[in-house]
Amino acid sequence: MKTLVNIFDPEEPLAAYLFLKQYYEEEDRLLFISTREDRQLLAPYATLFRLPDDKIDFIAFKRDEDSYIYERISRRLQSRLDPSAQYWVNLAGGTRYLALAVQHVFSQFDARLFYVQTRENLIVRSPFDDRADLSRDAVDTIRYRMSMAEYFRLHGLSHDLAGSNHRPTRSEADALRVFDCFRTRRLPHRAFHALEQLRLIYRGMRKPMSIHDITFGRRDRRDAVPGLPELLNAIGFVPKEKEMLQPAEVDYLTGGWFEEYVYYTLLRLVSPQQIAIGVRIARPGMQHNNELDVVFIKANTLFVVECKTGVASDHMFNEIVYKASALKESFLGPSCHSYIFTLKQDYDHKLHDVAAMMGITLCPKGTLVSPDLMRKVAEQMCRICNESV
Questions:
Q1: How far apart are CA 387 and CA 198, in angstroms?
Q2: CA gap 59, 330 in Å, rounded
Q3: What is the pTM of this model?
Q4: Band of the pLDDT at 68, cuts 50, 70, 90?
């Protein structure tokens, strides 16, 4: 039996979690060292490992009092440690100052010291001493691959992965057919106008409606979309129920098709471990929730793609970028990588520069219509998560 030690960092919990997944064995104990006094922040670990409270120890330092006083940290740690225990210590996480103190104290207890590199999916085992013999270092590849549900739970988020269908509603051929209409600009003006009318008037409707009623309008409530038959014919769209459009089909026509196109493209080029469309996440206790257009995980790295068929103005684009950046920073953490895929052109690279400044990668129409450029995007994603295509 050993005690696995982590410097707890609620902003980036992956290093601790992957360290435990790599080395935890039944009957092991867990010890967390933190600059936060709220033990409830450890709840995701207890839940995911199904551990009772008496298996988890917690040493907290008040950030404003003693977390930056080396001698006080050392004395406090020494008073809580058991000389007969076997400690395996992960030095990743928390402040560098705290990590130095933890390394110093546990070295006196003949502990095994590790450093988790989440970006490379590696764990370095080293004596971390003054001897310059690098041959004594050893590197373990992290074998475990977490799911999206685990990732969200670690970041204190609720989600609807289990309760909703997050797969495409139609085939890849259907999505590709619509994409080709936009790629080649062969969607007739009347059909394109019908698409905009559908988005403004009928998106979000709750009940099925006949194509006739949508085309000619209903005097009791909604305006007509006279170009609807031409739109359906141009993109080869066949409703599941003859002469009727379901609410989900209107959502598909007015943008859902693009999310499904991106889903199929990433599934083919990146081969993610898990991928989903339209996942809702929320922070418990907060009324507001967020929907992720396309989200996937590969090699313990989360990718979120915001899908926009069109962006009417620079102001609207800025809002999309700010939302994606805030979502990453406040909810999903630094191990998440955010992208915006859009059919808007970016000839002067101004949109790219705005997105990059906020840590977001932009894939405009020029990238999406080029197989070579899309392959490069996929290769970049695989490099980020340290797995080859």
A1: 42
A2: 26
A3: 0.90
A4: low
